[in-house]
# Entry
Amino acid sequence: QVQLVESGGGLVQDGGSLRLSCAASGITFSDYTMTWYRQALGKQRELVAGITSNGSTNYADSVKGRFTIARDNAKNAVYLQMNSLKPEDTAVYYCNAERRVIIGRITYWGQGTQVTVSS
# Structure
């Protein structure tokens, strides 16, 4: 059974920091691109940051310079360090694991963790 379990969310003041973690089980973690998405109330889910199996990263423009994604294949975990948080970063943050196969893609999602930034 595949599980992605996020942790580390919470309430933080404007300008504060949080570190999200996503622990994966049931997959060959090193084969997967890991991505953090977020969904604010009433808005569509959006990509925040991703890291490929070989360590290449990409970020949404809105978080560049403030957020850092990293992975630890030995621990089957991916992290999102979030600094200089803003109220507009308030959302449920989801961990995603994806890899390409011959017939398409295999994708898994975590249950999400709430991040609230107060002004």
